[in-house]
UniProtKB/TrEMBL annotation:
Principal subcellular localization: membrane
Comp. bias intervals (Acidic residues): 1-12
Record keywords, A-Z: Cell membrane, Membrane, Transmembrane, Transmembrane helix
Segments passing through the bilayer: 42-59, 71-101, 113-131, 137-155, 175-197, 203-220
Compartments where found: Cell membrane
Name recorded for this polypeptide: YitT family protein
Range of residues in the leader sequence: none
Keyword Cell membrane (UniProt): yes
Length: 228
């Protein structure tokens, strides 16, 4: 007579890799949140800030603007002797207080450092990457793509590039609005102000570039899609 098959106890570990036991090969369950390490955050923010600085520099050399505080800084270069890097940091100072109020000191510290590093990288680009003649269409397209990807990187490492980015993050987290669309509405105001200092064709080109940048953010930065 055959021995009846014994059903395994669902509460007992079934092998060294079973998370119910003490095996060393325990695998995280699907959907587990694996936060970035400190080293990953540092490298991610450095990568994002460098890309942002390069994009900002290409836009400046193309005599174009973008949205957000980057666009405000670019606008101010037409009326002040300061470089875009310095202006980018100065314009963001009021938004650091907003970040501290709504996002806490850790996020504010990361944002302040990120903005400062962008300003430093922008000075490096001006020193080591002279662009005597750049096609404005290419400059605007490349600059806004770089800015859009840079923002995604710093967002995903718990930081931002200040200014309107902080407002967009707060609107997304507190009001459940798309960060990219919130930023786009604010950017329109900056683009319209560009008519006061730039030829219409440059402003229209800038507007197209701002749409590209914000679409990159809107399509890739959604609540709950990426948590780390």
């Amino acid at each position: 007579m055959s021995t009846p098959e014994v059903e395994p106890d669902p509460d007992e570990p079934q092998g060294p890799g079973d998370p119910r036991g003490n095996g060393a090969n325990v695998q995280p369950f699907a959907g587990a949140i694996l936060p970035h390490t400190a080293a990953e955050d540092v490298l991610g923010v450095l990568t994002g800030t460098f890309m942002a600085a390069l994009g900002l520099y290409l836009l400046e050399q193309s005599e174009a603007v973008s949205g957000g505080t980057a666009g405000v800084a670019l606008l101010l270069t037409f009326g002040t002797p300061l470089s875009v890097g310095w202006l980018f940091f100065l314009v963001n100072i009021p938004f650091f207080a907003l970040a501290l109020w709504r996002k806490g000191w850790r996020f504010t510290l990361r944002t302040t450092v990120s903005v400062g590093v962008v300003s430093a990288f922008a000075a490096v680009c001006e020193q080591f990457l002279p662009v005597p003649d750049i096609n404005p269409v290419f400059g605007v397209f490349a600059g806004n793509v770089l800015l859009g990807v840079a923002l995604l990187i710093v967002f995903r490492h718990g930081s931002s590039l200040g200014g309107f980015n902080i407002l967009a993050l707060i609107a997304q987290e507190q009001l459940h609005l798309r960060g990219g669309y919130v930023q786009m509405s604010l950017d329109i105001t900056v683009i319209l102000l560009a008519f006061t200092v730039l030829p219409p064709e440059n402003v229209l080109l800038s507007a197209g570039g701002a749409v590209i940048m914000n679409l990159i953010i809107a399509l890739n930065h959604r609540p709950g899609r990426y948590r780390a």
